[in-house]
TrEMBL record:
Lineage of producing organism: Bacteria, Bacillati, Actinomycetota, Actinomycetes, Kitasatosporales
Binding locations of Fe cation: H305
Pfam families named in the record: TauD
Keywords for this protein: Iron, Metal-binding, Oxidoreductase
GO MF, any single term: iron ion binding
Coiled coil: none
Family: Belongs to the clavaminate synthase family.
Name of protein: L-asparagine oxygenase
Domain (TauD/TfdA-like) ranges: 108-325
Amino acid sequence: MTATTVHTVPAAEPVTTETFREIALSDDVRDLLGDQLRRLPDPNIDIDHSTARLLQIFSTLPTALLQQVLDFGRHIDTPGVTLISNLPVDAELPDTPSDGGPSREKKSYVAEGVLLGLSGLLGEPMGVLTEKAGQLVHDVIPVAGGAMTQTNQGSEAFLNFHSDIMHDVIGRYDVANPDFLVLSCLRADHEGVAGTFYADARDISAALPPEVLDTLRSPLFRLNAPGSYVRDVAGGQEVLSEPVPMISGHQDFPEIAISANGVHPLTSGGREALETLQQVCRQVAHSVNLAPGQALLINNRKGVHARSAFTARYDGRDRWLQRTYVRRSLWNVRYRVTEGNRRVHY
Ligand SMILES: O=C(O)CCC(=O)C(=O)O
Ligand SMILES: [Fe+2]
C-alpha cells in the first residue's frame, strides 16, 4: 500500500474468464448420493417436499464441490456451462419412451433426484403449459415426427445455437424464460455421436468483428416463438417478438438470446450478422457427448446451446435426456402464474 492511498478496498475476488468447467464426483460421493436417492418417492407427487429433501441430500456433497455448483448459479463471472460426471444412475432403466415421454415404466427416481437436486442448488424448477404440458421434469427424446425440426424432438438436423425462450404476450420471449437449464443423460444415442454444444456470449463477443457485434447489439431482430408453441397453439403460424438485440447488457458480462425456431432480421446487415453469429458460435463452443451419469448445468442467459445431428432408431434404446427449466426466483415471473400450480406458467 502506498502513502497516497486514502481508503482501503476489499481484496478483489478472483475473476474467472473460464467459460467451461468439469466436476467429477468420486465413487464414494456418487454411491452416498445414490443410496439416498434410491429411496426417493416420485418427486413430482409433492415437489416442494421433494426439493426440500433433495436439498438435504445434496448438502452432503463435499463443500468445495457444492460451492462450485452454488457459484455457478449465483455469480456473474462464473462459467456459463458446467459438466458434472459420475453421478448416480437408476439400477434399471426402462425403454426410452417412443412418444417423447414421460415413461410410465420407470420405477425408481434416481435420475429425477439428480436432476431436481442439482436444479435446486441453482434456483426453482418451473414448468410452462406449452412446453411438455407444464411438467417440471422434461424428457428430451427424439420423436419420429419431429426428426427434422428445430426442437428438442429433433435428431437428423443440427439444432442451431439457441436459448430456451418462451412465447409471452408482453412481446419479449427472453424475460420470463428459464435462467438455467439442467440436462441430465439417462441414455446416450446409439452411436454416441450426439454432441451438446455451448457457446458463451463472452467468447462470442470477443471473437466477433466489432461492427458485427454492434449490429447484434442493436434491436434489429424479431424472435419466432418456440416450435412447441407455434405447433400446438398458433396453428403453425409464426408468432414474432418485438424487435430485440441478440446480445445485450454489460460488455464484460453480456446476455444473449437466440430463438431456435427462427430469427427475423429487420435489415440485410442484420441477416449477415446472424449468419456470422452462428458460425462464431461453432468456433468458440465447448461440446460434450453426454453419457449416462453426466449432467450439464447450462446458464440460459450467459450463452447459447446447440445439438449435433444423430440417428434415432425409435427402438426403445434411443437417446434420453431429462431436463429442467430453472428460475433463480419465481417472484418476478408471477405475472405468468397459472391457477392451481404456482410453479407452472401459461
Ligand atoms: O439435446 C440436447 O443436447 C439439447 C437439446 C436442447 O436444446 C434442449 O433440451 O433445450
Ligand atoms: Fe434448447
